[in-house]
Design a protein that fits this description.
The chain is of the alpha+beta class. It has ten helices and 17 strands.
Length: 345
């Protein structure tokens, strides 16, 4: 079985959802529906919180709601169950979503390198999806079974790049689910408009986004219900799964042992002496680092404390306005897929 599938889909937003659902149905029925996470989240079915978020998505992002309805059809689940799963991090701080990112700005190069960490039971059942929705922006995104695209790593036809790190907020309240906001960003042409979208909608949960486009600097964006914090990456950055911006770090959140220690390790690796201040770091080596027995950066151990493993690694590189990127099963080995923009090489 391949570690990653490649899926090309097109059609209406409902069609896109159906095709994603059919792709992920086997893994969802064989694994997800029997998982502790699914059983924990089911208590929100029929809740006022879930109904409120559904109404807000239907009002503000009707085409994404159509994708969710199609996803439910393809998965052969109810729409409410499917929506519940796509609100998991808004409802429950310990939903199994992780990730780690290294950021580099050495003009004219800008580089975002990202480990996508998630439920180990989905390993081998995820896809890199090239989606072309009718009357909307085409994109390529990593996709989990049962989830809408966008909350992982992705780029769109405008070469807007986004990678996403989990933040385990303890102050989430009904609003637009964080995964819906990320899916909406895939329709935006620029970093500025992506940030504007976040600021102009009521957010439910929290995420950290790394955003870049052909003509902007890398932006590190942490958002929660209260605010959206934006920092420009001037040289190097590292981010695990908790808020670290000065204006965000004191909001209620869970910092797991894995997230805390990956952040420390990454910052230490970026601080190691190099030949001169502008020299680059080996981001793939950092994200492939397995030096710590309990809390490694590259996570494939069966006893991971957050019940997460590294599903894939993406390496996005802008040389001026030109985007080339690759996807790895293991960042220390050859890539599985390589792209120029949305075009697979």
């Amino acid at each position: 079985m391949p570690s990653l599938h490649y899926l090309q889909i097109s059609g209406s937003h409902h069609d896109i959802g159906v095709q994603l659902g059919k792709f992920g149905a086997q893994a969802v029925h064989q694994h997800l529906l029997h998982s502790d996470a699914w059983l924990h989240l089911r208590k929100w079915l029929g809740s006022p919180e879930l109904r409120s978020m559904q109404e807000q998505v239907q009002t503000h992002f009707p085409t994404i709601w159509q994708e969710i309805e199609g996803l439910a059809e393809g998965l052969q689940l109810s729409v409410e169950e499917t929506f519940m799963w796509n609100c998991r991090g808004d409802l429950w701080a310990m939903a199994p979503d992780g990730c780690t990112t290294v950021l580099q700005a050495t003009p004219p190069q800008r580089r975002i390198t990202h480990n996508e960490d998630g439920d180990p039971g989905f390993y081998g059942h995820c896809a890199v999806v090239h989606a072309s929705p009718n009357d909307d922006t085409a994109f390529v995104s990593f996709a989990y079974p049962g989830s809408i695209p966008g909350h992982t790593f992705a780029t769109n036809a405008h070469q807007l790049v986004m990678t996403v790190n989990n933040i385990r907020s303890l102050d989430a309240k009904p609003g637009i689910p964080r995964m819906v906001l990320c899916r909406a960003i895939l329709s935006q042409p620029t970093v500025a408009l992506a940030i504007r979208l976040l600021k102009t909608h009521q957010r439910a949960g929290a995420f950290h986004l790394n955003l870049c486009d052909p003509y902007s600097a890398i932006k590190s964006v942490e958002f929660n219900r209260a605010e959206v914090s934006v920092e420009t990456i001037e040289h190097l950055g590292f981010h695990a799964n908790h808020a670290i911006h000065a204006t965000q770090r004191n909001y209620p959140q869970i910092i797991t042992g894995s997230s805390g220690y990956r952040q420390l390790q990454g910052e230490e690796l970026l601080a190691e002496p190099r030949t001169h201040a502008a020299s680059t770091v080996d981001a793939l080596a950092i994200l492939g680092n397995r030096n710590h027995d309990t809390y490694p950066i590259y996570r494939r151990q069966a006893n991971d404390g957050d019940n997460e493993n590294t599903m894939a690694t993406a390496d996005f590189v802008f040389e001026g306005p030109n985007l080339n990127w690759s996807v790895y099963d293991d960042p220390t080995l050859a890539p599985v897929f390589s792209f120029t923009g949305l075009q697979r090489r």
